[in-house]
Amino acid sequence: MNEYDVAVIGGGSTGTAVARDCAMRGLKTLLLERDDIASATVGTCAGMISSGLKYMEEPDIVDMCSQEVVHFNRIARHIIMKNPILTPMLEMSDLSSGGNFAEEYSKRSATREVPPVLFLTPEDALKIEPKLNPELIASMYFEEFFIDPFRLCLLQALDARRRGADIRTYSEVTEMNKSAGGMIEVHFFNRLTAEKESALTRIVVNAGGPWADKIAALLGGHLEIRLNKGAHVILDRRVVNVGVIAKAVDGRMIYLFPHENTVLLGTTALDTWEDPDTLVASHDEIEYLLKSIEWVVPSIRQARIIRTMEGARPLVAQWKIPEGKVTRGYQVVDHSSEGLEGLLSFTGGKLVMCRHMAETVTDMVCKKLGKDVKCTTHIEPLSGNEGNVDVLALAAQYRVSQHAVERLRARRGTELGKVLDLTREHPEWLSAICTCEPVIEAEIRYAIREEFPQTLNDLRRRVRLGTGPCQGTLCTFKAAAILAEELDFTGEQFQLEILDYLSERWKGKRPPMRGEQLSQEEVVQGIYACVGNLDHSELRYEPKPWEEAS
Amino acid sequence: MDIKADLLVIGGGMAGLVAGMVGAEAGLKVVVLRKGQGATAISSGAVDIISYLPGADTPFANAIEGLHVLSEVYPLHPYSVLGYSDEGLPSDAERVVARVGESANWLKEKLSGTPSALVGDLSRSIQAVTMLGSSKPTSLVQETMFAEGSDDWHDGVVLFAGFRGFPDFNPSMAGKAFLDSRLQGDNRPRRIANCTLEALPFDTPYNISSFEIARYADREDGLLRVAKLLREHVKSTGADFVALPPVLGLRRARANKAELEEKTGAVIFELLAFPPSVPGLRLQTALESTLNNEGGRVLIGHEAVSIDKREEHIHSVKVKTPRRTLNIIPSAVVLASGKFIGGGLRGDERGISETLMGLTVVDVDSFQTKGMRPQRLTNVMALNSEGHPLFGLGIAFDSRFRPVGPDGQPVADNMFAAGSMLSRYNYLTEKSGLGVALSTGYAAGTNAADYVKGVLS
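^ inputs. structure came back:
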């Protein structure tokens, strides 16, 4: 049986950051993820690495977040975008809420190399974003950084692997027990081979997010989390070019953020006791968001809604206060007080803190193992961050659209050279497979070979396949064939892969269905049901959790 | 500007063009409005009649069986309505089969000689192979899509041939899937093979579309090149059949198939297409030119925007293009503007509506769907043999294919409807799209002509 210093459970932002930190400090590290990297909570966030907008009442956390933004801009500059943000105010009562924030934000703006908060006249605000309600009386202006959450997690995992960690996706921890010599035996089910495996480890870091309580319980540990679900509505294009933050119908703050080629409208916040795998956005959540943002962006309902996404926040278990009052900080629970030496669990936290969380827990792990190695995760860059990329020159050299090269750069930074290199031998791989994003075949092949995807959904997380307005209508069958070819699938697996991907897209497309998406869906059904006849196939399709739950 | 017409058809897909052709045959002055390209032009180009009962796993043995079952189980289905007597229900299955068969034969004759000439009939189910390697039972396919001898693949070697730089079709995976799906059955080929042809319409070997290859195949040098490459692969694999993506040409597709068969010695056939679809456009073009030859006019880029209804009669229809506005004064109107793709229906969180006149929209069970939001009309499974009720919606109609209001009375005495905007059937799961469009277009066109001639009261 393989022995490790530390086994990290969970491949989200926290788990991958911990695996990276542990590997960098020379610990023998195993990461076990039930599905794919970034396949749960972090995959449903807006990617904002916030300066602390929502938690100005926790100055220590605001300080920490500001510093983390600086670190991210050092190690992962290539997957970061900066968005200007406006907070249009329509009534005097809207004005009163901004004061404290402006002061706290401006205090720390220089560290992040952004201007302090500005107060704009209605005219200036409308010049920046003409879609705002012209009735506004004032607006604040500030800037926030956004990171590609999928690429961040993947780059952390790849970096950990490069430094010797074993990264195991589709490996679900089923049992844990104490073993001889203070070791913990971790049993996990390999979902790819359908075989049981196990490993011995000295420390277990539980980064299970919304499942952290269940993971702790496998070893008899007690952990309480406050599970809170949130929905985003995704619009087909950048209907606004700056972020807009406004008060929702219930006085909470919601936002409209440009995100890659789309715009995200979010979020809701509802306490939940549901299985996180079965969550889908409700009609109430969708209308809550639309009604709320409609006051400041009146034309929002003319925009084309392509889907919703719903995630579960594993908050620190503070009760009898609204979700917004729960600390945005994180806690590391050392279960040794329960007699469970070697089990450490996270609750709480935000995307922006994932590196910090990893540093804290890895310090604790090192102390327990008697190692004294300093953390360097904030200094050493992630892959692709090596320099600038001349997008226009590469587009001309490879005769491919500038847009395609720029999107490639936004995901991969300097690594895009390796992708384009593949097309010297295979110029046909310059073909755009997903034309919405766009994604060229070479990037799909490269991702399959270098980034261990097992499914089309995994590929989506790596290259944004099928995330545009057509939601995979025209790329699903093409990309499935490429994946099937590279991974040597059978013909049946190839068609099953198509069904699986359509099913996951449908999960998000279905709740907000309206407008242009009805004809888009008629095309989808036309291709895959009417012509492809996959609605009458004899494929052994296994229903997904959200399908079984309804 | 005012234009007079005997028959105005709103919608230029299969249903509308067929209605227009029937009207022209009856000697009417016909004008067809086509706003853009609808579902027919992006269809696979095969004319499905009926292959499945919704929810059923096994297909019907043939369309005749399907029509019999439908008229019993779904007496309000557009097909079943064809079997009504003058008094309405019950539906006579023999009459349904006869009327659908009549329209199918009529269409085959109309299209014979065009690049999308059809083969097949209601008594036989053709197992057409798709670009995914899956099979789909259908009734009529274009000649270029028909593989002579494919009822029995036994002992045959099937070569799947793709084109370099054309990512829509992966010959290796399609071939594997084709074979896998036949492992259990008894109709499986001896062997499959695949190849990729280096036939580049342009010097860039990527982002090649099916239309570019089709136009290349319509050129003499292009076809020679494809034939030469294919011949080598057929020789080395011993192929009896060659499955090509649907790219055999837009103008010369049938001649190209014959020439390739002659030069390779193998049976050549096109797989069922996904959009953008060469056979779909071939079919659209053939229908339009047939209508033109019969004296009908297709106004492309013309959208009907409002209706002037006086009493229970359509008096005139306002039509817009980006440059001009027309007023068409018709004796009769056939509305065939499609479902969501065509633009006949639209929906949002407030409900589903018919776009031109706000006609009554009902579901498969004839219940009004007013105010129902689209999500409520879907199932949790993306693809399922029941289909989504959302796509079984359409306008309510009577036994003469006249749109009716909530009271069941015709909205206008001179208006008829056809095609996918009709309610009470789900073409996606039944596989009945172009077949219903054809037979209801035929019926609506006939009824409209009768009305204009005063035969119909």
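The longest helix of chain A spans residues 491-509. The CA atoms of residues 90 and 135 of chain A lie 7 Å apart.
thumbs up if we can close this ticket
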